[in-house]
Write a structure and sequence with these properties.
142 residues, mainly alpha, 72% helix, 6 helices, Arc Repressor Mutant, subunit A
């Protein structure tokens, strides 16, 4: 029984370590954070969206979305504008530069994923996804 508990602890610790190391490696390889890429991906799918609706879609807190969008705007990747009828609302869209860079980011993301899952067979990937989904479901029940 002791070995089983130690293995269970190792599994949880390994998941924690993978999570902790993924974000900086992802950003280093792709040149963008996962959060910003998620925002850009949502913007890539629409012509324009309110900042509030975008925030709900990506499930990132309001202040962080505002900060990310401000920095992306400073880099010329997004365009924000106030609603002419109600100044409380801000609309966001990708600039032409943002659309072009988004295509490049998608390619870099795919390379990163391929490197992370290198040497995993299709069956192993399927099994891993199934197991991780079950862990995620178990966490939701806690």
């Amino acid at each position: 029984m002791t070995n089983s508990i130690r293995e269970d602890e190792k599994i949880i610790y390994r998941l924690y370590e993978i999570h902790r190391k993924t974000a900086p490696k992802f950003e280093s390889c792709t040149g963008i954070s996962q959060s910003r890429l998620e925002l850009l991906h949502e913007l890539y799918e629409v012509d324009e969206i309110s900042q509030r609706d975008l925030q709900k879609k990506v499930n990132i807190d309001h202040a962080a979305v505002t900060r990310h969008l401000k920095q992306l705007e400073d880099k010329g990747m997004v365009i924000r504008r106030k609603d002419t009828h109600d100044q409380r609302f801000t609309f966001v869209r990708l600039s032409d530069e943002g659309r072009l860079r988004m295509v490049q980011y998608k390619e870099e993301k795919q390379k990163f994923i391929s490197n992370v899952l290198n040497d995993f067979s299709e069956n192993e990937r399927h099994l891993l996804l199934d197991m991780l989904t079950r862990i995620q479901d178990n966490l939701a029940k806690i």
